[in-house]
Design goal:
Layout: H1 2-23, H2 26-35
Length: 73
């Protein structure tokens, strides 16, 4: 069992390193970064606190979800 784990460790480790080394190309990442569009500009406004002049009245009624009987002790 231990022998099988060590064998798989010695086989998979170099294979993983080889795959990781072959996948990277520094030239392609720099070209992609240069071709990226510029950051969009965003307008910023200072916040001002004031009362609202609009009043809205909405009629409605309240109803209980449950009814419970209350008795004295």
């Amino acid at each position: 069992m231990i022998r099988r784990k060590l064998l798989s460790l010695f086989i998979l480790s170099p294979a993983a390193l080889w795959c990781a080394a072959c996948g990277g190309n520094s030239n392609s990442t720099t070209k992609a970064a240069q071709a990226a569009p510029a950051q969009p500009t965003v307008e910023v406004v200072k916040i001002a606190s004031k009362k609202l002049s609009i009043t809205t009245r909405l009629p409605g009624e309240l109803q209980a979800d449950e009814a419970v009987a209350v008795f004295p002790r």
